[in-house]
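=== RUN LOG ===
request id: a7f3
mode: sequence -> structure
chains: 1
length: 58
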Amino acid sequence: MQTSISDDTWVWTTAGGCASSHGFVSNGWGQYTQISGKGDRTGDGETDIVARDATGTW
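=== RESULT ===
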């Protein structure tokens, strides 16, 4: 994932170690200092995204 200077967040998928596709996620993520996929934390069968802000709150 990457948050751009315009505060847009994009995600890239990989295949064989190379970027294979990307897509726009949303904007407004610039307040977070770390964004990561952390598995299925909610139990819905989908990979969840977690983010941490400057105070360390997830």
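=== NOTES ===
The first strand starts at residue 2 and ends at 3.
The CA atoms of residues 8 and 27 lie 4 Å apart.
=== END ===
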